[in-house]
Amino acid sequence: MASFSAILPSSILSVSPKPVSGISELIKLKYSSIKSEAESYLETGQKFIDRGCNIHVDYFLNSKEVDSYNVYHGNANISNHSFRSSSKQWDSCYIEIEYQPNVTSDIGFLGYGSYKVRQTITAVSAPSIPTNIYYPVSINSYNAVSISWSSVSGATSYVLERALNGSSSFIQVYSGNGTSYSDRLVSTITKVQYRVKAVNSSGDSEYKTGNLANVYYTKPNVAPTTPSSISVPSTVYGGKAFTVSWGKSTDSDGNLSGYKLEQSYNSGSTWTQVYQGSATSTSITIPFGATTRVLYRVKDYDSDGAESGYKVSSTSDVIFFIHSIKKNNIISVGGNFQ
Predict the structure, then answer these.
(1) Cβ atoms 249, 215 nearer than 8 A
(2) pTM, two decimal places
(3) N or C terminus of the chain: which is more exposed, having fewer CB within 10 Å?
(4) Which domains does the chain have, with CATH numbers?
């Protein structure tokens, strides 16, 4: 009798989950209808009489077979099947689906058929250990601490753990597919250590453990607020004192020290400091003939040297005039003219 055989071009559509070496688990196999594919090989006048369908699985480790068995024999019209994978260690898995019909024609039985679909699957391996884990060796717990680690090929997620105050007991603080995490520590912590591992369906890597970091708590100094206002007469007189005043600033740290007032005769191109102190006003006198316009700005500072932004005034006109006073036959001349 003749033998009819072919390796069908279609591959197995899906295997899920991907088998893991050394773990027996339920595997779902989905494939095209092998019978309908095999029928395309029939010649005119030929037909199939089903003898069924076989699914066979072979497992190999370092190219040597370590396990082999049939997982199905039955109806050739089905297109999916579930089976349990081998619990032995392996690195590749060979799945073969074989349709076995009798081939007949109008003149009778012609022979046996064997039509196969084959697929090789590589075992999922546990990921390797992350190469690095990064975080500061000295941490201010007032701020969040950033921890990051190197990515690992084949990892689907990572688990980050921490131990506090020199303890050897680690607790999980993050699980996900990212490679960084922002952690918050309370002010009573003095030491912290982090470790991370990579994870996939085959298992977990070893931990990559970082250095023991010192933790302290210091609230950073904050600069005072910018003075809320500045007040300068719109017109001032040369040689005559006038007052520049400004709004009081606030400082969340409570260490506001004072204010610095600056003056510009050239619309802000250059500035000269004319006052520094804790008051919120000062008396200014512009010398005779110094300028016709003047501009002021003020800022504050604290005991740590932090300074606010400037509050800038509007431009004021400066007017000069001449006056004379005769007293006891002596004439006194004053500057102020424009």
Answers:
(1) no
(2) 0.51
(3) N
(4) 2-122 (2.60.40), 133-216 (2.60.40.10), 230-323 (2.60.40.10)
